[in-house]
Amino acid sequence: MSAAPRRQDGVAVITALLIVALATVLVAAAMSDFDLDLRRTEATLYSEQAQMYALGAEAWSIRILSEDAEDNSVDHPGEPWATDLPPLPIDGGAIDGGLEDLQGRFNLNNLVDANGEIDPAVVEQFQRLLESLDLDRRWAGLAADWIDTNIEPSFPDGAEDSTYLSQIPGYRTPNMPVTSVTELMSLPDMDKEAFDTLRPYITALPRGTPINVNTASAPVLASVSEDFSLSDATRVTEDRPEEGYEDLNELEEILPADRAVALGVSSRYFRLRVRVNIGSVDLAMYSLLERQGAGAIRPLLRSYGTD
Predict the structure, then answer these.
(1) Which of 29, 74, 111, 257 is deepest in the core (most CB within 10 A)?
(2) Percentage, residues of the chain above pLDDT 70
(3) Can you list the pairs that 293-298 forms with residues at least 24 positions away whose Cβ atoms lie under 8 Å?
(4) pLDDT band for position 10 (50/70/90)?
(5) The pTM is what?
(6) What's the CA gap between 129 and 51, in Å, rounded?
(7) How far apart, in whole angstroms, are the C-alpha atoms of residue 54 and residue 56?
(8) Could you tell me the domains of the chain?
(9) CA 164 – CA 270 distance, rounded (Å)
(10) 162, 173 in Cβ contact below 8 A?
(11) pLDDT tier at 165 (50, 70, 90 boundaries)?
(12) H/E element holding 85?
């Protein structure tokens, strides 16, 4: 046999091997794309399921709060709404969560009055809260200037655009009510450690909300007056009846008369925290709920992943 036919046979074999290799690569790529599409579809379905479970938990919370309003007008930690939901099994995962009374915290939007002007008494209240947590009291004035409607820095701790535009990157003050306490991270020198210390004691609600003495912590209660010590506030929290204080008259001998903000024994604003783990999806949802007259509840704000 001549060399030419043998060379042709070799070329044919190599060509066949190349075709097989190319086909293998194409099949592998197609399988990889199919597997990726399958995982994407699966993740989408799990995400939709997780969101439905979270909204179901919100509906359940609304029902609990509505029934609570029908039973009594006092809100305290011994009520059903205040019991955290332990991890419960669902098809393919688990769900857990709980409700928190946000009126047990200091409302940042109370720093300004109905006209958008700084309320000095409430600024002093915030200063006392900061001091009780060993934090810089000047953040009270900075937070008030962040919210108030004018563009003139207040004395001595205020700051407006001239301060923030010099930051890198620069930004402006919103001069309007805050919708998230995380806005405080924009204040000068407010680092994560300080914010994490302060965060459990503050909230961002519509202006004018009173503090619920049945759910407030001792540092928050102690901030209401310079004549109200942390030990006084601790006594209030430790002596709370199982059914909560029914009215402020029960605390008349303890609470100071010159309080910076109104106090109460009931609440309108609650935060739902729910986490759903299903398949490859881990979903966290936070929902701000407002309880209106006659027990009607409406969601004001939802956020996913972070509150």
Answers:
(1) 111
(2) 88
(3) 294/69, 295/65, 295/66, 295/67, 295/69, 295/70, 296/66, 297/62, 297/65, 297/66
(4) low
(5) 0.83
(6) 37
(7) 5
(8) 3-103+268-304 (3.30.1300.30)
(9) 32
(10) no
(11) confident
(12) strand 85-90
Q: How confident is the model at residue 171 (pLDDT cuts 50, 70, 90)?
A: confident
Window from 19-28, 95-104, 182-191, 209-218 with minimum mean pLDDT: 19-28
Residues 48 and 238: their CA atoms lie apart, in Å, by 44
Pairwise CA distance, residues 67 & 254, whole Å:
32
> How much is the average pLDDT of 158-174?
82
Give the integer Cα–Cα distance in Å for 51 and 15.
53
Tokens of 235: 């006594």
3-state secondary structure of 274: strand
Phi-psi sector, 305: left (phi>0), alpha (psi -120 to 50), beta? left
Report CA-CA distances (Å) from 148 to 106, 117, 159, 207.
17, 6, 11, 12
**Parallel, antiparallel, or unpaired for β 269-278 and 281-291?**
antiparallel
* Count of positions (residues) in the chain: 307
From the list 269, 286, 128, 298, the residue with the least C-alpha distance to 204 is 269
C-alpha distances (whole Å) from 251 to each of 14, 122, 248, 256 are 94, 21, 5, 9
In whole angstroms, give the CA distance from residue 156 to residue 154. 6
What are 98-124's pLDDT values in tens digits? 999 999 999 999 999 999 899 999 999
